[in-house]
Amino acid sequence: MPPQGGGRRSYKLWLAVGAAVLVVLLVGAVTVVVGRGGDAPVVADQPSASASPEGSVHPADRLEEMLKAQGEALLRGDEQGWLAPIDPGNRKLYEHYRSQFTVLRALKVSAWQVRMGIPPIVVLGRETEARMMVAYCFGTPRCPEFKQLYGEAAQFTQDLRVRWGEDGTILVTGSKAAERDRFEARPLPWESERLTVREGRRVIVAAPAGQLSRLGEVVAAADRAAPIVDRYARLAGREPPTHYIVFLAGETEWNAWRGGKKGKWVSGYAYRVGLMTSNVVMRMSRVDRDYMETILRHEFGHVVTATGSDPYGTSVFDKWLVEGIAEYIGRSGEPASRTPRMGAIRQYVRQKGWPRTIKLPSLDVEAEDVEVDAFYGLNYLTMSCLAKRHGEPKLFRWWIDVVHGEVDDDQATRKHFGESWAAMERACLSYIRRTV
User: Domain 11-184 carries which CATH code?
Assistant: First the structure.
């Protein structure tokens, strides 16, 4: 921080001071944490975009203070405080931040932690770039702190355009996702314009304008699915979320959110929100009313088993496990022989032969419908085999150990089932033949 003093600092002096601050911050950066401990966040005095006496605080430090105060305003429900750093002359940007405030509050944002990147170059009377990183949580009273590596909270990187007024004013005049955000694929669903959010008993569902007609239908189905999935969460030793969060996507949103590029056959996915939980995205053009609750149970299954359906934290070779357990939760105790995927399984077996291992390879993004249904159906039958042989409690404890534990497959199988992996695999391959 530069020393206090009177008189106008020159452009060259600000550059010199900025360079010195850069060296200091690269050695030891400071994280600004905004969180909610107990019933309400701790609120500091709120800097605004108005002028302040020159020489008191370096402008880069003031920007950080303003962004910290903006996060605190978000948590306490103060819309004007949230909008304070934003240039009111940029109506599009101003309305975007206003919309985000409404959506984030409806999603029960419980933490908004700001950390600045490399200190920005300050040029009085001009605009320059500044980078900030944010760690956040929805509905979590105690959100983990921001970390550059292996952070547990959800994190993203935002590039800001900042105007440094000669009178001391600081305003954010532009905001965009970092081109290469190493924390997240962007845009995130909640960054969309004009989402309508509705809260059920156990779910929060957000819909863009094109999906409003289905919002009530999804809330009702998700509220029915939630308590069923909660039971499986407890079997897995996991605490069910206070609310499951679901985003409804039309084709435009589907192809944009988190970079798009999902398999053509995908009707929904769960994506990791840090290491805390997962949120769900539904591709509404592929979700029929009759199967909606099953699909929601499947995706909520990813949430409570803490994997998401993206290969984050698990090998792509574990997809048979990840999708198998979600399919088992989705079918919710239905007899294995009654799976609607049975026709596709039989067709697949006629074409490809019986599987020789339960570790089925992952699907290609261009996989055909029969191959997709067979993949999900066969993995479901494997989980059904294990539940029938050893009971659901052992199935879920085994699954958690195999996917998240530090033991290999055979060790986990002997520990939970009292048999070798090879013996278990032979038994389940035989079970699949008998059931199909």
Answer: 3.10.450
d(CA 397, CA 401): 6
- Global model pTM greater than 0.70: yes
Domain ranges of the chain: 11-184, 186-313, 314-436
135, 154 in Cβ contact below 8 A?
A: yes
Strand partners of residue 247: 206, 281
Look at residues 160, 110, 115, 151 and name the one whose alpha carbon lies nearest to residue 133: 115
Supply the pLDDT for residue 405.
84
What's the CA gap between 243 and 108, in Å, rounded? 10
pLDDT at 48 over 60: no
| Nearest-angstrom CA–CA distance, 60 and 129 | 11
Q: From the CB of residue 229, how many other CB atoms can be counted at a distance below 10 Å?
A: 27
Can you list the positions of beta strands (E) in 44-168? 109-116, 126-138, 154-164
Confidence of residue 318 (pLDDT cuts 50, 70, 90): confident
Apex 254 CA angle, 182 and 291, nearest 5: 125
| Dist CA 77 CA 101 (whole Å) | 8
Q: What fold characterizes domain 186-313?
A: Zincin-like (3.30.2010)
The C-alpha atoms of residue 206 and residue 185 are separated, in whole angstroms, by 19
Instruction: Give the helix ranges, DSSP H, for 54-90.
Output: 59-76, 79-83
